[in-house]
Write a structure and sequence with these properties.
This protein is an alpha/beta fold. It is built from 25 helices and 21 strands. The longest helix has 21 residues, at 541-561. The protein is globular, with a radius of gyration of 28 Å.
Length: 662
Amino acid sequence: MALKNSLQQQMQKQGVRRLLVISGEARWSAAQAMQFCDGQTGDWLWVSDSPPDDVNACSPSAAHTLLGQGILHGVFDARHGLSAEALAAFSGTLKAGSWLILLVPEWSQWVRLPDADSLRWSEQPQAIPAPRFIHRFQSLLEQDGSVAVWRQNQPYELAPLPAAPDWQVPDGQPTAEQSHILQQLMQAQSGVWVLTAPRGRGKSTLAGMLTLQWPGICVVTAPAKASASQILNQQTESARFIAPDALLSLCREGVVTDADWLIIDEAAAIPAPMLSELIAAFVRVLLTTTVQGYEGTGRGFLLKFCASLSQWHDLRLNAPIRWSSADTLEPFISDLLLFDEHLPVAGQTDGASEIFPIQAGDWLTEPTLLADFYGLLTSAHYRTSPLDLRRLLDAPGMTFSASQSKNTLTGALWLVDEGGLSAELAHEVWAGRRRPRGNLVAQSLAAHAGFPEAAVLRSRRVSRIAVHPAFRRRGIARDLLAEQQQRAQQAGLDFLSVSFGYTSELALLWQQAGFRLVRVSTQKEASSGCYAAMAILPLSTAGKKLADRAEQQLNRNWRWLAPHMELELPLKSAQDTQPDDADWRELNGFAFAHRPLESSLPALSRLLLHSALPLTALRAHLQQGQSVAEIVVALKLSGRKALLNRWRQETQQALNTAGRAQ
């Protein structure tokens, strides 16, 4: 106890946090953690799905709700699975002087044990081991002298930290960095200001200082009101919070006219189209986002979204406030999850790039390659998260390749195996009765576009592709895709696929690479604010037949889909309205199985044109444009589910009358 107290005093004095790993049998390690906590004041919050009785606990899935809080001491339970983003989020809430106790399985068995968290990223029906991530984790733990590892049945030592200057506890006044930025913002006449920082640097506090000192009105928005609490906690009546959706509606109505500033906290978590529209409605805008993100990365946000702005001001906070610069926990988590803004250094940018394959084992033997490859991905996709790192290291069915020029990684390509389902399972997917894990494009083409054969054929989906900014517009992405096309053909695959948020620029890029647009969703994705589009590059005769049919169907259906979407596509709307064999199959799937209305909408619309039956509920929605709520009231139904049943019943009636029921 005396040693723990002296170490606690040293940590508090230096303003640092430390990591203690307890490795062993599940019940033993929990008991040691409880014993370690005993007698030490603090919050001692457990992040666990199976915490002991009588402890303050939070599940890993809810760890993100802790962001913005200041917690003294915590226990993270990884005995049965390790959620990397939950670990990162939890560590970001711990105050200076905190212990983070990490519970893990028995050390030598850890790499071989199934990791329950793999169910979120491996696309497998059962949990699988994660040997590469765990091996890398163990190596970093053993190399870090500040980390204490306590293994069951082995002695362990809690060594003091090296001497360091005393930490000056923040007194609530702006730091030198904050003062400099605050002065710039107070003098701003107009413009977009982008403030990025790792966790614990006081960016939200700085935004709150702006609302406190600014003489006019500041509108604050964020993905969730809780994430903006640090801004709203300032004692000011000039700041008012409006949720992003509601604010967008007000902007479109021209109602928000008295605000001097729009402050958007955690801006990288808001869809880019929504951000663009909100920004355009205000004279002054402050965007804050976290560089070392748990939901996404600030560097990619800067390179992707901010680069699209005509003009913006780049603001950075570097010095930590919640802990000292001598902290040991933050650099460990940053190394483990590759949070640093790492982009391969571009030497000479002339000369050709050489393409080479990467095997999963290379991630451990060539750590620089892992950092460079993952760094390219985070720079190109600002929603890259620790879940992607887990998937990249250990998920089965992954294919990687990269391009290199004079020792600089210039391009990265990541593909995922899909398809190969049995015909019986593919039919169940088409019918809406089964949705096994994985197979994003293959299953979507079966479940939504009505092509069960897409899930039977063997394919490979482009998950991520990125090119170094210094080497763009040299055909590197095209060459990477062409090389993988050749490899996939040699492997006997039927097609390559890609899913992306539809923009005309992206659609053209994939078209130039040989991909053919085969599906567009009828609803915008919350993450991108765009309609999800899918394109395939056929490799075999069966793949070409699928592409021909899907492309033809998209053109035929576009007439019926376009009125429901805010999107223009370069498609030829077919004038043919007579139901064909594919329509009758689709209608039977809607009437007698569980296919969704959205997927069957074009076939239902063509049916209504050629049926003399009343089909009151279907016509009210598809021909008269009445909402679900209006039809439910008019037909005196109990709700949406009852209306869906009514739609299915009317379709059954039409099929029976036409002699097309199967």
